[in-house]
Structures are given as C-alpha cells and as structure tokens.
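Bug #77: duplicate submission created two jobs. Keeping one. Sequence:
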Amino acid sequence: MKSLLAALLLLLPFTGAFAQNNAEDKKAAKLTAIKNMVEGQNYVFQAQQALPLGGRTRQLTTEYDLTVTKQSITSYLPYFGRAYTAPIDPTKGGIQFTSKDFDYTLTPNKKDGWTAVIKPKDNRDVQQMTLNISSEGYTNLQVTSTNRQPISFSGIVVAPRPPKKK
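Kept job's structure:
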C-alpha cells in the first residue's frame, strides 16, 4: 500500500506539468488563430456592450456584429444616443450597412494587439470605425458618424461562420 502511494506521489508532478503544458498550448493556438484572422482581414467582431456618448453602458443580449473581410464590411450594430437627422427608413435605426468600397488600415500596437481603422466610402453616415484588438481577441470599437453622436462597443473577435450550404 505504501509503495502504491509513493508511486502516485511521484506521478503527481508530471500530470500537473502535462495539464499546464496543454493549457499553454491551447492559449498559444488561440493567439495564433486571432493573429491570422486579424492580419488576414477575415474576422467577426461580436459586440457585448454598447457605450453611448453621455449615456449608460448597455449589455447587449441580442447578437450584434461587424463582419470584416477583404471584399466587404457588414455592420449589424445597434445605436443608442442622439441622432441629428432621422433615417428615411425607420427599420434602419441602428448602424446597419454593407460596404464594398472602403479603406482598411491595420497597425500593430506597441505592447500587443492591433488597431484597425475602417473608412467606408460608399456609406454616407459612418465616417470611421476604429477597432482596438488585443492579442487575446478582446476588442473595443469606436464608431464616428456624420449624423449621430459617437458610440463605442466592447466585445470579442471570433472566426467567421462558414457559409450555409444551399
């Protein structure tokens, strides 16, 4: 019995080291995946909180996102704050658009992560979207509009969903 207990005590440090290495491998794989998505310009920002200018922080319970690819930018985000002009179509109350003509600038930050600046050319309302992306995928998005007060969102960057088969 004592020899079995001694053998188990000898194996215990190795199992702990294996579990720690496995966790480190998973974290390294996640960091590499985020780096490849951001630098490859193929990711989805999922908004979790909205921070309107001069308002209170709102937790978002519905799925709102910003999809970024080399071909297009698709925004499906809510808006809370002061609008200077009302939209013509009342169903377009949030920040909802698809842009195929835009400037995209990605610069690495000093410590870690990236800053992506998107300037849609074919959208009259949104002037600029700035994403501050950490190397772990945590992201802050600031949206500057022509006809509305600025708004910020916080959330995460994830891989895009594969297209649905028809």
